[in-house]
Amino acid sequence: MIEHRIATILRSSQPEETLVVHGWVRTKRELKGFTFLEINDGSCLANLQIVINQDLPHYQTIIKQINTGASVEVGGVLVASQGKGQRIELKAEAVQVYGDADPETYPLQKKRHSFEFLRSIAHLRSRTNSFGAVFRVRNACATAIHQFFQQRGFMWVHTPILTASDCEGAGELFSVTSLNLQDIPRKENQEVDYSQDFFGKPTYLTVSGQLEAEIMAMAFTNVYTFGPTFRAENSHTSRHLAEFWMVEPEMAFCDLEGDMNLAEEFLKHIFRYVMENCEQDMEFFNQRIDNTVLETAENIVNNQFERLSYTDAIQILEKAEVKFDYPVEWGLDLQSEHERYLAEQLFKKPVIVTDYPAQIKAFYMKLNNDEKTVRAMDILAPKIGEIIGGSQREERLDILERRVLAQGMKPEDLWWYLDLRRYGTVPHAGFGLGFERLVQFMTGMGNIRDVIPFPRTPQSAEF
């Protein structure tokens, strides 16, 4: 017998085919000498119905072993289904139970469970419809990201997870050390003696691979990173994680206009790919999670993004007939409520805001001629606010050195980064996308902890 995944069987298999399936039992019911199982192997949202006749050898012994959560192998013949809701079902000729599940203690019974409860059993929650759909969409998003860049000749580069630099300058870093925390070596002035640490200097988990991506772009022109990043931000909101994945393309010989164009094409490509390859899952989210999911996706794919400067955005927000919780003033960063007003209520589509005040942006962003603003851009999306942040990078050595000093950083700590401006500097640009925020936006899930298999948050590092 040939083994098949359930998604393939439901999509294209025909009655009278003989095959083998593996999966986990979702439901079991016994009726008039037959046992009906619904099994799922994670390949799709739908289950495959298994029909077991009591004439099967060792029928009673096998059926007693099978409960919700049990893992099984079933061989048999496909037949046209007599019931509603499925085209075909599998008439079992051989059943093997790999692992049973005690119905008294198995926590996933056939009822609605809260997402908060499911977070406490993250080792099992992927077997539910909601999380099966989330992680299939997450996989499709990752596939689409690689496809987008590879088709355009970008090189995927692996940037370090351990680093001595703080790319964002925010200071929200996880320290990494091999020192004995019960007996920390100290200098005469009582400062920690990092010369005795593994790397000989303070070292952290990375907050971004951007600076290293710039290095690679100076040799390979177009590159992208896709890997884990970390923020030691003591936040308990539905939008923050301590460990998350970032996508960061970097393009040499590129300005802010090219950066914005690529970012817009990028988002549209991902949404289009997911809509084509996860249709059933997206319908599920639209019905069960957020009834605007499909509408939002269509909005992304079919609209040209609005573009305006930060200064224009501030003027619009100041005149808005809406009472905001946070102040609107030139020089202050836009808050989520401001971003969502622009994208949801005013333009009703994604918005790209450019040329932010230099004082609220990172040191590496290119200074405009007014010396007050930088060539930065954020893409604001309906329902979530900022989803992409990027900029043209400062390629002029003298201005970059001035910006580093202005933000209280030491040029000697970034000697290699400054060297890129000494030897063959070029205009270049890039952007960053928080992968989990993208998946949350796409699926309509209310909490970002529910779009990553094992969320890392303050006071929580289970699984």
Automatic annotation (TrEMBL):
Gene Ontology CC annotation, any one: cytoplasm
One Pfam match, by short name? tRNA-synt_2
User: Keyword annotations for this protein?
Assistant: Aminoacyl-tRNA synthetase, ATP-binding, Cytoplasm, Ligase, Nucleotide-binding, Protein biosynthesis
The identity of this protein, by name, is Asparagine--tRNA ligase
Q: Where in the cell is it found?
A: Cytoplasm
- Gene Ontology terms describing biological process: asparaginyl-tRNA aminoacylation
Q: Which NCBIfam families match?
A: asnS (TIGR00457), PRK03932.1 (NF003037)
Catalytic function, reaction form? tRNA(Asn) + L-asparagine + ATP = L-asparaginyl-tRNA(Asn) + AMP + diphosphate + H(+)
Q: Which residues form the Aminoacyl-transfer RNA synthetases class-II family profile domain?
A: 135-453
Group of enzyme by EC: ligase
How does the annotation summarize its subunit structure?
Homodimer.
